[in-house]
Design brief:
The chain has about 120 residues and is mainly alpha-helical. The mean pLDDT is about 75. The N and C termini lie far apart (about 140 Å). The protein is about 60% helix and about 0% strand. Among the domains are: about 45 residues; about 25 residues, no CATH class. It has four helices and no strands.
Length: about 120
């Protein structure tokens, strides 16, 4: 410590503090400030909100589809394992006749070409 010089090391240059504000102001004037317009801010916010909304709706639809598919598989499992009968399923429906009509149409097709003459019993004996 005795070998160190006693000279003041933390001395500021002459006129430093008088010139400092002018240098700072000059630097700020030279720098180009970029301002984002209000319309761009609103557009960016709208795009983000729209993206989040679309993502949420898509996720919700995927959950509903997955739930319905799982429910259909579970119902098929109960039916195939003979734990449920056709009467049990029809009793859960609000309108069992419409379900039966849909099944008949799917199995037999439309009955538009129905004629009573085609179904008359001819007696050959």
């Amino acid at each position: 410590m005795k070998n160190l010089s006693k000279k003041e090391v933390f001395k500021t240059p002459e006129g430093y503090f008088e010139e400092l504000p002018d240098k700072i102001l000059l630097r700020n004037e030279n720098e180009k400030t970029r301002s984002i317009s209000l319309i761009r801010k609103y557009a960016a916010a709208a795009i983000i909100i729209l993206g989040i909304g679309i993502f949420a709706i898509y996720q919700n639809n995927q959950k509903e589809i997955t739930f319905q598919a799982g429910l259909n598989n579970e119902i098929d499992l109960y039916i195939n394992s003979d734990q449920w009968q056709a009467e049990d399923i029809l009793s859960l429906s609000e309108n069992p006749n419409s379900i039966l009509d849909e099944i008949i149409l799917a199995e037999w097709g439309t009955l538009d070409s129905y004629n009573e003459e085609d179904y008359e019993i001819d007696q050959w004996f």
